[in-house]
Specification:
316 residues; Tetratricopeptide repeat protein; TPR-like_helical_dom_sf; globular; mainly alpha
Length: 316
């Protein structure tokens, strides 16, 4: 399969509220634009400069793999440099996105991931790609096994922990509010295992939002989340306070996926009714909104984010 020709003229300007997964990584944005035009050498330089910063490498490869042309250009890169672990990892991530969109067989994507893993045994990214695929299409046993593979290579892997929380939150959806649910145990365990400056400190907030997503879907809730009562319990308040205090002291926004954490924390603080704290987070988020958790449950994330931001800043 030959790659498509580079598009003529200027690249399409991205919509203001398309929730760009590149977040605030301008180098990644530039490399993605070049890749969409067939210039994969920029991606090669970006990944070489990233090195073994596993969270940043995983973030960049997952985002690059989402580009519709990434699979074809990665395959061309592999023809030129068949031993390139970076080319193989990009091909694997692109294959996973193709499989999730129904454009490629999951087994083919899995083969691409295993080929990439063989070229760089220490790299957690091919296993992250497999976990991303299993999160939607795999069994619970597959998800746990693949999470362990990622964690073996990078114990504090940010994206892998988020994927695990999302899957665990879906267990026992019919039981309703349960402060002892395993997703909360997992999040607390992950925080205990991580060093004090790890952004995994926000994971209990993510777990609370993911559990809300599941419960709201089961109940077919139509009310906005801030009126659901999910963030008003004592346990929820303690979780939100601990996460906000951590953010004030450590400022996890420097992490490549830090804006994701800030969106979850701002969402939680807004739902809790803490307008001043939410406003501080909205200021730090800036234009880098994320669709999750503002889309929960089945909402327009742009409208939900904008309304919450305006309300918080107006009340602060």
């Amino acid at each position: 399969m030959s790659p498509p020709p580079p598009p003529l003229g200027r690249a399409r300007k991205r919509a203001a509220h398309d929730f760009d997964p590149a977040l605030d990584d301008t180098e990644l944005t530039a490399a993605r634009t070049a890749l969409e035009r067939g210039r994969w050498a920029d991606t090669r330089a970006l990944l070489a400069a990233t090195g073994p910063d596993w969270d940043r490498r995983g973030h960049r490869l997952v985002v690059l793999g989402q580009s519709p042309a990434a699979r074809a250009w990665a395959q061309e890169w592999r023809l030129v440099e068949p031993e390139s672990a970076d080319a193989a990892a990009l091909s694997a991530c692109a294959a996973v996105w193709h499989a999730l969109r129904g454009k490629e067989r999951p087994e083919s994507a899995q083969d691409s991931c295993r080929a990439a893993a063989a070229l760089a045994p220490e790299d957690p990214t091919p296993w992250l790609a497999l976990l991303l695929l299993a999160r939607t299409l795999g069994s619970e046993e597959d998800v746990v096994r693949l999470f362990d593979e990622v964690r073996h290579r990078h114990p504090q892997h940010h994206h892998a922990h988020h994927l695990m929380v999302g899957r665990l939150a879906e267990r026992r959806a019919d039981l309703g509010q349960d402060p002892l649910h395993e997703v909360y145990d997992f999040a607390s365990w992950a925080v205990d295992q991580a060093p004090p400056d790890s952004p995994l400190a926000i994971l209990p907030v993510v777990a609370h939002a993911e559990r809300y997503r599941v419960l709201a879907q089961v109940a077919r809730a139509a009310a906005p989340p801030e009126r659901s009562g999910h963030w008003s319990g004592r346990r929820a308040r303690l979780v939100m306070k601990a996460a906000f205090d951590w953010w004030l002291e450590w400022d996890g926004a420097q992490h490549p996926r830090g804006r994701i954490d800030l969106n979850f924390l701002a969402h939680a603080k807004f739902c809790e009714g803490r307008a001043a704290e939410a406003a501080a987070l909205f200021h730090r988020i800036g234009p880098y909104a994320t669709a999750e958790p503002w889309a929960y449950p089945g909402r327009d994330p742009a409208k939900a984010f904008g309304a919450a931001r305006n309300a918080a800043l107006g009340a602060a």
